[in-house]
Amino acid sequence: MANRLGVLKTILWLIVGVWATVTVFRFANGLGATTALNDATPWGLWIAFDVMAGVALAAGGFVIAAVVYIFGLQKYRLFVRPAILTAFLGYLAVAIGLLYDLGLPWHIWHPIIHWQYHSVLFEVAMCVMLYLSVLAMEFAPVVLEHPLFSHPLFRHIYNILKKGTIFLVIAGIVLSTLHQSSLGSLFLITPARLHPLWYSPHIYFLFFVSAVGLGLMTVVLETIFSGWFLGHKIRAELLSGLGAAAAWVLGFYAVVRLADLAVYGKFGLIFSSSWYGELFIFELAVSAIIPAVLLAIPKVRRSVAGITVCACMIVFGMVLYRIDVCLIAFQRSETLAYFPFWTEIAVTAGIVSGATLVFIFFVENLKVYAENPSSEEEPKRSMVKSSYYPTTVNTLLPYRFLGPRSYSLMFVVGAALAVGFLPSSAIFGSRPVRTPVSSPRMLKGYVVPRADGFGHEFILSNSASQAPTGDAPTFFLKLDGDRHGRFVLFPHDRHIEMQGRTDSCVKCHHMNLPGDTNTSCSECHRDMYGITDIFEHSSHVDHLGGNDGCTTCHVNPSDVKNRQTALRCAECHSEMLVAGSVVKPNKEGLIGYALGYKRAMHDEFAQKGFCIDCHKEKAAQAGRSPKGKDHALTRCDACHRDDISNQIKTR
Amino acid sequence: MKLRANNSFAILTDTTLCTGCETCVRACKEKNNLGEDQPRLWKMAIDDLSATRFTSLVRRAGDHFVRKQCRHCVEPACVSACLVGALKKTKEGPVIYDASLCMGCRYCMLACPYGVPRYEWSKAAPTIRKCDMCYDRLIKGEQPACTLVCPEKATIFGTRQDLLAEAHRRIDRAPNKYQKKVFGEFEVGGTTVLYISDIPLGFLGSKSDMGDKPLPDLTWAAMKKIPPIVLGVGGLMAGVWWIVGRRMKMQALEALSEGTTASEGTTANEPGDEKKDDESSE
Known about the structure:
By secondary structure, chain A is mainly α. Chain A has helices at residues 2-29, 31-34, 45-57, 60-70, 80-101, 110-113, 120-144, 152-163, 165-185, 203-230, 236-263, 269-272, 275-296, 298-302, 304-328, 342-365, 404-421, 424-428, 492-499, 505-508, 521-524, 537-543, 550-553, 569-572, 597-601, 612-621, 636-639; strands spanning 441-449, 456-460, 474-479, 486-491, 532-533, 593-594, 640-642, 649-650. In chain A, a hairpin with a 6-residue loop joins strand 3 and strand 4. The longest helix of chain A has 28 residues, at 2-29. Chain A is elongated, with a radius of gyration of 35 Å. By secondary structure, chain B is an alpha+beta fold. Chain B has two domains: 5-222, 2-Layer Sandwich (Alpha-Beta Plaits), CATH 3.30.70.20; 225-282, no CATH class. In chain B, strand 4 and strand 5 (95-97) form a beta hairpin. Chain B is elongated. Chain B starts with 8 loop residues before the first strand and ends in a 25-residue tail after the last helix. The chains are: A mainly alpha, B alpha+beta. The interface between A and B is large, with 102 and 98 residues.
C-alpha cells in the first residue's frame, strides 16, 4: 500500500521534472517555440483541457458542499474535505495553466481593474478568481487545525471561518453555477465556427448540468484512488448514493442535449455530418447515456469496480465534451492543422502531477480524511499515518530507495530528458521551417499576342499539335520553388534572345560553379526564405594546398580566421560580377551566403532587384505606365499565376 | 455599443476594378513597418493574413482578386470578447488595439467571424496584430495608406453613408455585373469595410451566410441573466438550507422531548449541523 504511494510519487516527480524544463523554455522563447498553436487554432490543449476540463473536473467541491451543507445529507460529510481540497488544487492548477497559455501572463491581473463586462471571459475570470478565494477560505480551517497555528490570532481566524462556512458554501455554489455555465457561454459568440451539433443558445445550461454530473463522479474517483494509494477504506454504500444522483443528472443532461437539437431542427445532423455525427454519438454515449443506464442498476453502482468504470467513462466523456467544443468541433483550417506538441502535453501532465503531489502532501500532514476532525486522536484507519509532526519519517516504506532520494533523482532525470528531447525551436526560439527550393520544370508552349492588343498570352502545349499562329514553340520554365501551386511562367528562350544569346548567360546566372556555364538559381538559393550557406571550406582548402594556402584568403595572419576577415569571393571569382549584369550583388557583402530564393528573385519591399528593375524599364520604354489592366510587367500578377488562373490555356 | 454607424469612416472595395497588383498590400506593410513575411506554413494558407500582413489579396478562379482585411464591424465581436477592453471601437469607425492592456488570451481571435486578428507566435511577448484603418492618419484628416495608393481606385475611402450610396449606385448602373448586395451593409450587424463584387464573397467569413444579427447580442442575451441567477441561486440555496435546518431542528427537539438523544454523529463545531438523513437523492 505504502509502496504504491512511493512509486506513484516517484513517477509524478519525473513528470514534474520534465515540466520544469519545459517551463523555462516556454517563458524564455514564447508560444510559437513550445506549442503547435497557430492563427487558425488560437486555443489548443492548454485551454481545452487545463482550463475548460480542469474547471469541470474541480466541480466536485461545490457539488458535495451543496449535498452536505445545503441539503443536509450528513452521511457524505466524509467527502467534503478531500473534495474541497481537490477543487482548490484544481482551480489553482487552472490558474497556473492559464499563466502558460496567456501571451502576456504578467498582465493576468488586468481584469481586476479593467472591466469590460460585456465579455463572457471577464465573467469567467472574475468568478474563478473569487471562487479560488472562497475555496481557500473553506479549506483554511483544515490547515489552521495544525498545531503550528496555535497562536490565538489563528484560533480567532479559525473560528470566524468556521462560523462563516454556510456563507462560503452558498457563495461557492453561486460562483460555481456562474462560471461552470459561462465556460460554455464563451462559445455563444461563435455560431459560425462551432459545429451546429455542439452550438446551442443554451450551451451554458448544458455545461452547468454536465459539470454537476462530473463533479459527483470526480468525488467518487478521488475516493477510489485515495483508497488505493493511501489505504483508506472505501465506503461503497456512500458511493452508490452519489452514483444514483449522477444517473439522474446525466440522464437529464442527455435528454436536454438531444431535445435542444430537436427544437432547433438539428437532429438530422447527427446522421448527416460525416464524422462529426459519429463523434457526437460517441461523446454523448460515453459521457452520459451508457453511464446513466449502468448507474441506474443498483448492482453496478454498489460495486466498487462498477462505479469506478462508470466514473472513468463519465470523466473521459465530459472532458471530451469540452475538448470537442473548444477544439475538435471548432472550425479549423484544412491546411494548418493542430495537434499538441509533446511540450504542451508535458505542461498539462506536469500541472496535474504537481497538484497531485501537493494533494498527497496535505493528506499526509493534515486531517483531510479524518471522519471526526475535531477529535484529537490519530485516525486509526489508514496505514499512512496522518502526522501532525512533519519531522516524522514515514517508516512504512519497505524499500529504502523509494523516498526523497528517488523523488529528487526522478526530478533531475525528467528535467534532463526534457532538455534532450526539446526541439531546437524551443531552445533557440521559434524559427520558420526551412522551405527547400526545387528546380524549375520545363514546359513547351507558344507566345502569342493577345487579342485585345495588350501584351502577350502564353499557351502551353503538351502535344505536338499545330501552333496557334504557326510560330515555333518556345520553352517556359515553370518556377514554383516551394511547390505550393503558385508559379511564375518564365519564357526562358525569349529572355535569352533579348539579352544577347549565349554570351548573356552570366548576366543572370551570376555565379557559375566550377565546370558549369549557367548554374541554375536554385543551386545556391536553396531556401525559399532563409539564407543558404554556399561556401565550401574544405574544397577550397584542398584546392589551395592545405595549410599552406590559408593566407590566400585569410590574408592577415593576425586576424581571427572567419568569414568577415577573409577575402571576398569576388576577388578570385571575378565572373561573379559581370559588367552590365542584371544581378547586382554587393561586392563587399559577398561572403558565401545566398539570399532566400524569393528575395533573390525580387526584393519584395522596394520592388527592385532581379526581375523587377528590368521589367520596369521595359514597361517605361514601351510607353506603358505601371498601372492599368494591360498586365504591365511590374505588377505582381503579371508573372505570378495560380493553377486556377485561366490566363494559361492548355491544349 | 450602438454607434451612429453611417457617420463613421469606411472603405469600399470594388473587386471588379482590382487588378491584383498588391500595391495596397505593400503600402500597408511599409506604413506599419511590418517587415518580411514569415513562410507560408505559419500563415493561414487560405488567406495570407498574418502578424506581418494586415491586408492580403485572395485570388479566386477567373482572375478575381479580393482584398481581405479587418472589417471594422459596427458592433464588433472582438471588442465584445476582449475582457480587458484592449480592442475598442472608435467613433471614427476603426477598431483599434491597445497592446498595453492585452493579456494575450486570444479570445478575440476566436470570436471574430472573419478570422482576422493574428498573433505574433514567434515572440516571447506577443501581441495581436490586425489592420487599424491607419487610425493615426484618420485623426489627422488623412486617408489610410491602402486606399491612398490604389492605382485603379478599386479600394476607396469615405464615410459609410457616402460609400453605401456609391456602392448602390454602381450596382444599379450595372445590374448584370455585380452581385445584388453590398457586402457588409447588414452582415453581422454591419461592417465599415464594404465590398461590391461580381462574385459572391461568402468565403471571407467563417460561414457564407452569417446572418444580420450582431454577434455581441448573442452573449449579452446570456450575460443579462447573471444578476437574476445570482439572486435566484443564492436565494434558493439559502432557502433550502434554512428549511432543511429547521426540519432537522424540529426533529431534534421532538426526539429530545421523547427522551432519546438524537444527536448521533454531530459535533459542536459545525454550524448548521443536522441529523443524518437517509434520502440519497439530490
